[in-house]
Amino acid sequence: MGGPSVWPALLSLLLAVATSFFCSAIPIDDARKQLLMREKTMQLGGQLVLTKEEELANERLMALKRAEMKQAMETQKFPPSMHFFQAKNLIEKSEVFNILKKMPKGAALHVHDISISSMDWLVKNVTYRPHCHFCLTRSGILMFKFAYPTPPTPAECSEWILLEKYRKKLYNVTEFDNSLLSNFTLMTKNPEVTYANQDIIWSKFETIFFTISGLVNYAPVFRDYIFRGLEEFYQDNVFYLELRAMLFPVYELNGMIHNQEWSVRTYREVACMFAKEHPGFIGLKIIYSDHRFKNVSFIMKSIQTAMTLRTGFPRTVAGFDLVGREDTGYSLYYYKEALRIPALQVLNCLTFFMLERQIGRVLP
Ligand SMILES: *[C@@H]1O[C@H](CO)[C@@H](O)[C@H](O)[C@H]1NC(C)=O
Ligand SMILES: *[C@@H]1O[C@H](CO)[C@@H](O)[C@H](O)[C@H]1NC(C)=O
Ligand SMILES: *[C@@H]1O[C@H](CO)[C@@H](O)[C@H](O)[C@H]1NC(C)=O
Ligand SMILES: *[C@@H]1O[C@H](CO)[C@@H](O)[C@H](O)[C@H]1NC(C)=O
């Protein structure tokens, strides 16, 4: 709370209380109670009147919350005070959290293309599909590629290893799968030690996207990945999504590459199919994105691409955004020339339209 619009209300409240202190005969305790009551009605939801059933549901939820807080005091394990990686397990066990999961959320408006499905699924499902290869770059970064036959050795790796064959030779596959999972997530037992500063965690974060892109951008996986992502959000009662998407090339087993229109069309098709099977689901939109370390000439081209895509898919492509680490990337001011392109085009269109009408008036 505390936007500018609250101040006039607060002032008049204080004035009312001050007046009641000096001009009326209500005892000070009652005046204080009234003040607190009136303040409560100014809080979010303060004027909401609950039905009997809602009151009951609220009482139960609050009782669970109080019990969890009491327990946290006793065990000294209070999730809100912990690093998220250490708290996550506890949060998932919390009854309050599991009730919140079932509540309607509406929309997820800030999610990214290749981080909408669980990494467990990538390991357990996607890396088990046929023709999946992996390699380790010289700096130890994992890469994946689906291909048949096995593709030639890439410049940055030793050679492509077929996962199916590799797993057969392993003594402990679970251990290997866990090592893949730890390549796919930031989770670690000692986050404060592992990620001593922002540079380290951003570097790992971006490495993850690089690593999983070879899995997600394989055409059959790409479709399943979107569907699976929508399913996971739907389970949390999210009915609409806006995805920031860089629309990297999606490839087929024979190496054929699809263009960005194909990717947008696929998003639209999968969302449509999903909506048919899932009542209440509203849909998804794409916010075409590019990286904010690219220079202004690149971003100008991306904005043109976003506009072209929007013309082709007006109900699916919602706009443009810049992604990546904000504090080390370029500022919006640096991109001003690029970012003003859409508005200028609208202006040009308007001018053209008005000119046309004027000419129309002059000509018979
Ligand atoms: C992987 O997921 C797809 C659907 O997304 C499913 O059809 C398939 O059976 C799954 N495979 C495995 C090995 O779990
Ligand atoms: C395989 O590794 C997992 C995880 O490290 C471990 O829990 C399991 O006991 C291991 N299995 C064998 C047969 O060594
Ligand atoms: C990533 O996976 C590779 C291959 O299993 C493994 O050698 C490496 O330790 C993993 N990296 C991390 C950070 O777990
Ligand atoms: C933008 O970057 C590209 C490639 O790095 C370069 O060729 C181009 O000259 C740069 N443009 C500007 C305006 O800096």
From TrEMBL:
Q: Where is the signal peptide?
A: 1-25
**Keywords (A to Z) from UniProt:** Hydrolase, Metal-binding, Secreted, Signal
List the catalytic activities from the record. Answer: adenosine + H2O + H(+) = inosine + NH4(+)
Classify the source by domain of life. Answer: Eukaryota
Give the main location.
Answer: secreted
The enzyme's first-digit EC class, named in words, is: hydrolase
Entries under Pfam families matching the protein: A_deaminase_N
Keyword Transferase recorded: no
Stated family: Belongs to the metallo-dependent hydrolases superfamily. Adenosine and AMP deaminases family. ADGF subfamily.
- Note the PANTHER family from the entry: ADENOSINE DEAMINASE (PTHR11409), ADENOSINE DEAMINASE 2 (PTHR11409:SF39)
Assembly and interactions?
Homodimer. Interacts with adenosine receptors. Binds heparin.
Would you tell me the protein name for this molecule? Adenosine deaminase 2
Which organism's genome codes for this protein?
A: Rousettus aegyptiacus
**Upper classification of the organism:** Eukaryota, Metazoa, Chordata, Craniata, Vertebrata
